[in-house]
Write a structure and sequence with these properties.
The protein is α/β, with parallel strands linked by helices. The chain is built from ten helices and twelve strands. A hairpin with a 4-residue loop joins strand 10 and strand 11. It binds guanosine-5'-triphosphate. Keywords: Cytoplasm, GTP-binding, Hydrolase, Lysosome, Membrane, Nucleotide-binding, Nucleus.
Length: about 375
């Protein structure tokens, strides 16, 4: 059972107009249509970062979006129809996990005059290029090169993320070999073009396991300017509490937005995801219908799991959509009072970071609105010089 199909995080789904260059204006105010959107973006650096999903047809872009943000089961993606329009969606479950995802059809043509790629890349935070590892990837690599070079020219601040996707069908050796080959060829192409300074990050992903959530977590983390502060807070928290590993999770998407500086291993990450599922599912089944608007996750949410290898997993609510999940030894857990006290301090500090982030976002929005209104005034004067 999954509560998350009722999407708290997905505020709305919009489909861009059939012609690639013309985007639907969701509220009818004209601001998000055509060139205007790009112009405001360039001034304000849009409050919500934009993440683009690009790649050849059938590489798995829509499946990734549906599995990560709509909790679609991987098998259901077999029935997804090919995307023929740009699909935009806002993901906004907390101030830290707040962005727009644009899912592109596989066949976009940069030379199509109706495709305003400058406008699109200008407001982009991360470009995820999906390569089907089970297919011949020569064409995908040349497409990747074209896309990255175009995007970089318009906006050198974009994070370029390459998902070597559908690796579930490959053996471990084969996966590493594919990654090495794709990594080498993509970087050789950039070096040949004199663009070796462009950095590409590579991830092995599949919708059939947690790798896609882990990869998405890393993409999203890079878009959180407060990440070093959050990491520092977690480092202090674990060292003061005798904890071995701590994650800060967005419970809706199961994206972890920060962890301490010790390395992350996949099994640990998977255990955290399973724990969040268990908490939400049990809460859905047994929580009182009238408790806090019937939400399955609230201030009281907490769980302790004793693993059979002397490790304890401890989950606690941080904010409405964030949870801390940590791993510690049974002996350390005996000092639960100290852990809870330190957690209380951590929670307050995270709340402060959160408040600062909200303030910065509000200021940026205000600034952008002011600039926009002064610009429209100037335009009005210019267009009626005799008034
Ligand atoms: N084995 C495997 N198949 C996958 C994976 N991800 C997606 N697929 C399958 O790949 C096929 C194409 O997926 P889509 O998500 O429609 O691909 P797309 O890139 O959005 O395709 P277009 O809309 O045509 O651009 C579907 O049959 C999915 O079930 C994966 O991780 N592993």
């Amino acid at each position: 059972m999954s509560v998350t199909t009722d999407r708290a995080s997905v505020l709305r789904e919009e489909e861009a107009d059939g012609a690639l260059g013309n985007y639907d204006d969701d509220d009818g105010d004209g601001v998000e249509a055509d060139g205007e959107m790009g112009f405001t973006d360039s001034l304000s650096g849009e409050v919500k970062p934009r993440i683009l999903l690009m790649g050849l047809r059938r590489s798995g872009k829509s499946s990734i979006q549906k599995v990560v943000f709509h909790k679609m089961s991987p098998n259901e993606t077999l029935f997804l129809e090919s995307t023929n329009k740009i699909c935009r969606e806002e993901v906004s479950s907390s101030s830290f996990v707040s962005f727009q995802i644009w899912d592109f059809p596989g066949q976009i043509d940069f030379f199509d005059p109706t495709f305003d790629y400058e406008m699109i890349f200008r407001g982009t935070g991360a470009l995820i290029f999906v390569i089907d590892s089970q297919d011949d990837y020569v064409e995908a690599l040349s497409r990747l090169h074209l896309t990255v070079t175009r995007a970089y020219k318009v906006n050198p601040h974009i994070n370029f993320e390459v998902f070597i996707h559908k690796v579930d069908g490959l053996s471990d050796d084969h996966k590493i070999e594919k990654q090495r080959d794709i990594h080498k060829r993509a970087n050789d192409d950039l070096t040949d073009a004199g663009l070796e300074h462009i950095h590409l990050s590579f991830y092995l992903t599949s919708i059939y396991d947690h790798s896609i959530f882990e990869a998405f977590s890393k993409v999203v983390q890079k878009l959180i300017p407060q990440l070093p502060t959050l990491e520092n807070l977690l480092n202090i928290f674990i060292s003061n509490s005798g904890i071995e590993k701590a994650f800060l999770f967005d419970v809706v998407s199961k994206i972890y937005i920060a962890t301490d500086s010790s390395p992350v291993d996949v099994q640990t990450y998977e255990l955290c995801c399973d724990m969040i599922d268990v908490v939400i599912d049990i809460s859905c089944i047994y929580s009182l219908a009238d408790s806090e608007a019937g939400l399955p996750y609230d201030k009281e949410s907490m769980a302790i799991i004793h693993l059979n290898n002397t490790t304890v997993m401890y989950l606690k609510e941080v904010t409405k959509f964030l949870a801390m999940v940590c791993f510690l030894r049974r002996e350390s857990f005996e000092r639960k009072g100290l852990i809870d006290y330190n957690f209380h301090c951590l929670k307050k500090a995270i709340q402060e970071v959160f408040d600062v982030r909200v303030k910065v976002q509000q200021n940026r929005k205000l600034l952008s609105q002011r600039r926009w209104s002064s610009l429209t005034k100037t335009n009005a004067v210019l267009s009626s010089p005799h008034s």
